[in-house]
Write a structure and sequence with these properties.
Blueprint lengths: L1 H23 L11 E10 L3 E13 L4 E14 L9 E17 L2 E15 L5 E18 L5 E9 L12 E7 L1
Antiparallel strand pairs: 1-2, 1-8, 2-3, 3-4, 4-5, 5-6, 6-7, 7-8
Length: 179
Amino acid sequence: MKSQNTISKLFVALLFALFVGNTVHAQPELDSTKRWYFGGNLGAQFGSETFIEVSPLVGYRITENFSIGAGITYIYFSQQNPYNPAYSYHSNIYGARLFAKEYLIKNFFAYGEEELLNLEEPNFNGDLVRTDVGSTLVGGGFSQSMGGNALSYLMILWNLNETPYSPYTSPIIRLGFTF
């Protein structure tokens, strides 16, 4: 837990450094209608393990290249045991996230995210209890214009706080859209 707090503090310091670095330089004024953007990620996997994710987001462009935002996440997870259905498992995972994105060169960006998810994990008796699991995700991606303000993007992220209860394993690949 102590390392998770240290990593979270480093992440906040990085976000602050990016924000301060971008506000010091004179930037051309963005049209106020182009500052806000909306979008999100959708994910699905079906089979003996089913994973369905819906993660809408809202972002705000501070400069032409730097933006911050927030989102919510909902994940349905199900694992079927074909040999003994009594040992099958399903769960609803939900939470929120804050992110920062900096375009380094045209279409390529660095990305950082702090996410807190509420999920079920076994306690010392083996009973499932709801708990919060934090993740610090860092990485980068590529975006492609789809016309107007619409973009599609592909990101590769690593979870710096990976635990046995994290719903993600690194690397995490996300495909999403904004408009």
